[in-house]
Amino acid sequence: MSDSSETGRRKLAAVVYNPVKVELDDLRPVVEAEERAAGWEPSLWYETSEDDAGGGQARQALDAGATMVLAAGGDGTVREVAEALQGTHASLALLPSGTGNLLARNLSLTLNDMEHSVHAAFSGGDRSIDAGLIDIRRADGGHSKHAFLVMAGFGIDAKMLSATDDDLKAKVGWLAYVKAFATVLRGDNLLRARFSLDGGEVRHMRVNTVIVGNAGSLPGNILLLPEAAVDDGQLDVVILRPEELVGWIQVFVKVLWENGVVRRTKLGRRFREREVKSINYLRGQEFRVRLDHPQEIELDGDPLGKALGMVVTVAPGALTVRVPADVAEEGEQEGSSLAEADSTSS
């Protein structure tokens, strides 16, 4: 978690921005002031388009020698930029500008404060996190490979995202998803799935939703995957299979009350979790699932069309993210403490 100046890397940043979500006239002077103060070279600027949400621009930045790329846009822009950066030595800086801001929320970064986010990018430190890698199997036999940072899945979440009204989302933010969720619930949402974890036994199940996560939190303070951490080298899977109203009540109690409230307290974490039939949790490093017919699929809150299945793996520590200096220092101290504890125990 060291700054670029300590590693001897070139100090050149690039900004990949979505012009629909970002006011360039407001962002550019802030970036220019921070880059000068931190002794960085003048930043490169790349605008996203309808055809390229950030991946191509991030690769151009890498080719130009950028050692840090600031993603200024929604979750789609962040995911596309991260997909290009994962596995490289360049770091990702987040300038949250969307509705969900999923990765920023899971890293407990400041939201809706452009000046603070830009300052953290140029004066902060590095944190290594995992990336989820997914091979999507299409109905026509084709494949498409992507990276994701927070969650990927089939079912109600993907259908909800496809049904969300963009104009309403622009007006009321993530609350627009509530209306879409209520609409989707009225349809037939049962899926027939075959899945396996880490090459184990293939299981058959009628399910409602299958989500594979690299992180666990959603907007609205919803903790969907309570064991998930962005740097644990593991995938967390949740399978929802509620039956009738009782099943949905179990899901909501589990996610909104037990995960969202009880598990956030010291006392609550000491009690053994109550298992319910309507929701199953799995952990591993490779998850395969195949459906009986094509369904909507989503990655980090973005619909990616329909698919018959997916193979998901985790790439531990594959992405470097810029975080505020004090957060980086806390991480270094925590890492040192763990290392000392390991050496003492051995």
TrEMBL record:
Quote a single Gene Ontology cellular component term: plasma membrane
**Which InterPro entries does the protein's record reference?**
ATP-NAD_kinase_N, Diacylglycerol_kinase_cat_dom, Lipid_Phosphate_FormReg, NAD/diacylglycerol_kinase_sf, YegS/DAGK_C
- GO BP, sorted A to Z: phospholipid biosynthetic process
- Ranges for domain DAGKc come to 8-138
Q: Which UniProt keywords apply?
A: ATP-binding, Kinase, Lipid biosynthesis, Lipid metabolism, Nucleotide-binding, Phospholipid biosynthesis, Phospholipid metabolism, Transferase
A GO molecular function annotation here is: kinase activity
- Highest taxon, organism lineage: Bacteria
Required co-factors: Mg(2+)
- In the UniProt record, does the keyword Signal occur? no
Q: Which family does the UniProt entry place this protein in?
A: Belongs to the diacylglycerol/lipid kinase family.
Entry protein name: Diacylglycerol kinase family enzyme
Q: Which organism is it from?
A: Amnibacterium kyonggiense
